[in-house]
Automatic annotation (TrEMBL), chain A:
GO BP terms in the entry: phosphate ion transmembrane transport
Keyword Glycosyltransferase: no
CDD domains: ABC_PstB_phosphate_transporter
Listed Pfam families: ABC_tran
Protein name as catalogued: Phosphate ABC transporter ATP-binding protein (PhoT family)
Keyword presence, Secreted: no
Keyword tags: ATP-binding, Nucleotide-binding, Phosphate transport, Transport
Coiled coil (residue ranges): none
Organism whose genome encodes this protein: Hasllibacter halocynthiae
UniProtKB/TrEMBL annotation, chain B:
Protein name: Phosphate-specific transport system accessory protein PhoU
GO biological process: intracellular phosphate ion homeostasis; negative regulation of phosphate metabolic process; phosphate ion transport
Basic and acidic residues bias: start-end ranges: 223-234
Domain PhoU intervals: 24-111, 128-213
CC per GO annotation: cytoplasm
Record has Translocase as a keyword: no
Region (Disordered): 220-241
Keyword Acyltransferase attributed: no
Role description: Plays a role in the regulation of phosphate uptake.
Record field: transmembrane: none
UniProt keyword annotations, A-Z: Cytoplasm, Phosphate transport, Transport
Entry's localization field: Cytoplasm
Family of this protein: Belongs to the PhoU family.
Length: 265, 241
């Protein structure tokens, strides 16, 4: 196939950050993820797409062991981050989640001030030795969340008082405050209007410089806009995984083609 | 969702794509007729028929404009991907090819009108008509291949363009001979040569349509392995030593 990438989208230099091998997930008797193996690159936005119930969110939640919180969930296979098995007994899930930040569908700021929303993680993980350092972390995180200019004069105001789009960017700032290496986003824009969505998408593109970003989205156009790599899930299988331009122009699997072109299947 | 389906969930999307492809077929039909009638007008020295071909080209141009507008709408409103994207991209290219073929047919008709005022040169008119018939048959097959998404037929059309190139080479040599024999043939031969060259170019545009069928069905363009059979750029016919 011809190389159709524009330089902006070049991904070849990125190294593997997350490596999944033969991952299976069961919720009780339900087999939700069926033998998924995939390498996710560092400093790259990877999109998971697929119809409802295809397993894309379930798989995303394996990457920071969020499925541990569900009693009936059982995960087998290996997930390695930088070559280390995150399901190893010695791994503390709380420490893991500081390294693997997560942003959810609905903006969920704590009922605290804007400042404290961002400072919460660094405080409990002991990342700042004093108030000056904490102030620096908060400002840097809010800048990375592309919301600093909008809130710098009212850091004591409640985070819940911001608009939906601002709340979501605050949540992203909160997620990056603990210096994670990976950001997981589960439909981060589905509760936002198109302008706020565009701002968050712009932010995602900037975050790519520092993080490995994995985003689950129902919007195929969003996947096409923000990601360099796309993975298509269907009925618990990873059907196709490739460069986003290739997936959206010449998908190899007929199921991928049916889904992205909006055909009945 | 286990098999590839033909129907979109949004049925209006299917209707849009079908409507655009129907316009291509309509345009193709008009262009096929233009080639046939222009060549016939040349052979039978029928000025009226030539005039009808010249007037008919406006309808082809209008269809191209309409197709461009409809394709722009589908791209803006539906954001087509994968093979849907290839359908709209191929429609754009094919309509442009058809428009060019239509122009060549119109030019052929114009020269046919002029040639009715001159002495015929040998049997060149019937040779040119055979060449035009070959191109018209290739165009018909290319459009059939498009409708049926028939890659094999498209590749066959590509191969047959070699014959058109060979016909052009032969007729090129024949014109040189006629002109060397009798300089009074030169004006007519110049017109006839343009007709031959334009018909050869029509074949190239038909080949390009066949390429689009391959792109549409496979997602990539065919290999450029076809030999070039137009040798006339290298012909000297003893004029240069």
């Amino acid at each position: 196939m011809n190389d159709m990438r524009i330089t902006e989208r070049a991904v070849d230099l990125s190294e593997t950050k997350i490596s999944a091998r033969n991952v299976q997930v069961f919720y009780g008797d339900t087999h939700a993820i069926k033998d998924v193996s995939v390498d996710i690159a560092d400093k790259t936005v990877t999109a998971f797409i697929g119809p409802s119930g295809c397993g894309k969110s379930t798989f995303l939640r394996c990457i920071n062991r969020m499925n541990d919180t569900i009693d009936t969930a059982r995960v087998t296979g290996d997930i390695l981050i930088d070559g280390e098995d995150i399901y190893d007994r010695r791994v503390d899930p709380v420490q893991l989640r500081a390294k693997v930040g997560m942003v959810f569908q609905k903006p969920n700021p704590f009922p605290k001030s804007i400042y404290d929303n961002v400072a919460y993680g660094p405080r409990i993980h002991g990342l700042a030795r004093n108030k000056v350092e904490l102030d620096e972390i908060v400002e840097r995180s809010l800048r990375r969340g592309a919301i600093w200019d909008e809130v710098k004069d009212r850091l004591d105001a409640p985070g819940t008082g911001l608009s939906g789009g601002q709340q979501q960017r605050l949540c992203i700032a909160r997620a990056v405050a603990t210096e994670p290496e990976i950001l997981l986003m589960d439909e981060p824009c589905s509760a936002l209007d198109p302008i706020a969505t565009a701002q968050v998408e712009e932010l995602i593109d900037e975050l790519r410089r520092n993080y490995s970003v994995v985003i689950v989205t129902h919007s195929m156009q969003q996947a096409a806009r923000v990601s360099q790599k796309t993975a298509f899930f269907h009925l618990g299988h990873l059907v196709e995984y490739g460069e986003t331009g290739q997936i959206f122009t010449t998908p190899r699997d007929p199921r991928t083609e049916s889904y992205i072109t909006g055909r009945i299947g | 969702m286990t098999d590839m389906q033909d129907q979109h969930i949004a049925s209006a999307y299917d209707r849009d794509l079908e409507a655009i492809q129907a316009l291509i077929m309509k345009m193709g039909g008009l262009v096929e007729d233009a080639i046939t009638n222009a060549a016939r007008a040349l052979e039978t020295r029928d000025d009226e028929m030539a005039e009808a071909v010249r007037r008919g080209d406006a309808a082809v141009d209008r269809l191209e404009e309409q197709i461009n507008e409809e394709v722009a709408r589908v791209i803006a409103l539906r954001a087509p991907t994968a093979r849907d994207l290839r359908v709209v991209l191929s429609v754009l290219k094919i309509s442009s090819n058809l428009e060019r073929i239509g122009d060549y047919a119109k030019n052929l008709a114009k020269r046919a009108s002029v040639l009715t005022q001159m002495q015929p040169v040998g049997d060149s008119a019937s040779t040119l008509r055979r060449m035009a018939q070959q191109v018209r048959a290739m165009l018909k097959d290319a459009l059939d291949a498009y409708v049926q998404r028939d890659e094999a037929l498209a590749l066959d059309v590509r191969d047959r363009d070699v014959e058109v190139d060979q016909m052009y080479n032969n007729i090129f040599r024949a014109f040189i001979t006629h002109m060397m024999e009798d300089p009074r043939n030169i004006t007519a031969c110049m017109h006839l040569h343009f007709i031959a060259k334009n018909t050869e170019r029509m074949g190239d545009h038909v080949t390009s349509i066949a390429d689009q069928v391959v792109y549409l069905t496979t997602g990539s363009m065919p290999d450029e392995s076809r030999q070039k059979k137009d040798r006339t750029p290298f012909e000297t016919h003893g004029a240069v030593r």
